[in-house]
Amino acid sequence: RRMSSRALRRLRVEQEASLAEEHDGDESSSDEEQNDGGGGGFMAMLEEESSSEEESSESDDEEEEDEEDQPAVAASNKSKKGQATAKKEQAPVEEEEDLDAILSDMKIQNEITGDEAENNDPSASTNSSTVRSILLSKTHGYDTQDLDLDYSLRDLLGGAAVAGNPLFIDDDDIQQQQQLQQQRGRNNRNRGGRNNRRTVAKKYLFGKVKPEWGKPPSFVGGGLGVKELTQDVLEEEEGNKWSVPWPYNESGDGSGEDDDENKEKDAFPNAKWFTFDMSDTYSEINRKYEQMLSNPQAGMQDPNLLAMFVADNPFFAETILQMAMVLYYVNDRGRGSDLLRRCMYLYETALPSSLLPSNTNANDGEANNEIFMDINLQPNSGFFACLFRIMQTSGMSGCHPNALAVGRYLLSLDPLRDPMGVLLILDYYALASRRASVALSEEDEDGLELGASFIVDLVESEKITINWEDDLTSRHHKCPLLQLPNWAFSYAMALHRLSRKEEADEALKTALETFPMVLPKLLEMNKVNVQARSFQMDWPTVLPAFNHDLNAANIDEINTQIEARVARAAGEHLVRIFVERNHKLWKENDVVQWMYSCSEKVVKGDEPQLEKEADAGEGAMSTSTELPPKQLTSKFSPALVRYAQCDPSDYEDRFRTFPPEAIALDPNLVGPALVHDHRRGRFLRGGQARGGGGMMEREMMEDVPADLMEQLRGMLGMAGNEVDLLDPDSPILQLYLQSLLPWAQVEGVRPPR
Predict the structure, then answer these.
(1) Among positive and negative, which fits the CA dihedral 164, 168, 170, 173?
(2) Terminal CA-CA length for the chain
(3) Pairing state of beta strands 724-726 and 96-98?
(4) pLDDT digits (tens, 9 = 90+) for 653-699
(5) For residues 648 and 577, is the Cβ–Cβ distance under 8 A?
């Protein structure tokens, strides 16, 4: 459709005025409101006739207003009136513009800046009907700035508060840069005309890009891309038998039927599935890498060979991630972190903005859509692993807000299957972050703790469940989130920090009754004296009921079925991980006193017997042990077997490093792997990556008809000989002359058909 030039310009002016008011204020509009009399009327007429002139030169318009109020300098205003009249005469030449161009221009601006008024809308929290909106919305304490490790470090060290700190960032410098970018944007729009498009630099959420990383190629240029797994896409790709995995393919009532009635009950009616798509060049590199792994003679187990492969293929994410972890395990955390962020940079470049977290997710059009990825598809597995390693290393560095933000994003990609085991550690990051919101009242001086509030919201939403499919029996098991030991206790702790005392007591008592073995382990890890007896805490009268669950002989008598024993083994595994990492959150004196109070109510009832016996006299303490002993046993759901294969070392607070002599890394090979240099030749030449077998090139020659190659060799007197492979890094003249020989083939280049 077409609109008049005046209406389109007025629409653009209103949009730019709103953007300027949000960021740095529109000084020119405030000056116009202060002017009076004929100046205001003249400016109203001038805005309709030459609004484009106002955009390009706001300072000139202010001078025109001042000169209108001063008759002594009215002569200088005639020339400007003449210019306005001339522009008015030229206006019919550009009578119509493309409406789609302007609307798309405004859409880009809205995606970048967002609408802060909607973000502050309290009704947004009530509309959080999806898992993605709970995990990634600003109303539930999510901030995309926490994804940047540098920002989290500055916040942790207080770098933004002290100007003398080298990490200090001056807000005035940032504001000046924003003003310069806005001015350049206005000038470019005025120069470009109809075909002009505003180019917006992409903001990378996971950190600032370093120049030595290079610019990764697009999907067309040989890199990664992203596609949505729709029915049309699956039909176009022959051999793609992918389907929505369990438990996402069953209806909300768990029947698994797809009739119209069950579709209305579907827990994820608007789910969209995406996957990374490898280009032909990227697939070729991936094929070489897999062949090197499958060939023991290739020596891919050597980290130096891995470094050479990274240097030769600087935009292949899988090997960059492996090289980063090698550096972490030899205690080279600085360069390992650099490679890890570089790997994330490759994935983030390929991801569209709709798949990345945003502070406006709770209010934009994507809020009603769940965005999932299937880790079983090969390109996606590296992305999941990269996010998990970033979360793990950030947590080890003490940047718990960064680890929490990355973990929440990782969980949102596959919340029901949780392939990376994020739920085993996410509650710890939420409680350890200790970040509070702005105080809303005088009673709440410290504000609301965002991490504790997130745990309560996620548990009470009942959106996330634990799901496991037994491969032997083909049975499906499902349980709520509170059946995980760490979430049962963390939920009680979150309520306790939010000062919801009665609910916290009930939650902790439920957790102690469901998983009694946790209490003795927590007390042991925190080195609490459980032999001492006092009027405040008398552990000898309480702990025997909980220690009964630690005796394996007592449990074997109860769990006679194999399924129950497997579930208990998985539960003990999860309790070990929880106690090892979370015990520091339960060591404060008031928390220990709270645990004793709730455990006493579990063993002796809601009315503590200790207080009654204390009132009875001196002999009360000796009669407390005469109560009939209570025996508590842990109850683990079979669905917890899903986490039985999780490695406890992935949830510890440090890496188990190797001595430097165990992995002899050559610095001359590791250095080129860290810096991208397109002028450098390849390291792996002449069959080094093939183990001397020439396996890849022989497979590439399979496309050439065998009889044709044999006939050509016979004519040249080379019957039975192999094709000579030329090194592409040889001198260009030598390579050109050698390639003219019919029996020569350039390594890595397919022969013509």
Answers:
(1) positive
(2) 49
(3) unpaired
(4) 998 888 877 788 888 888 889 998 877 777 775 444 433 334 444 44
(5) yes
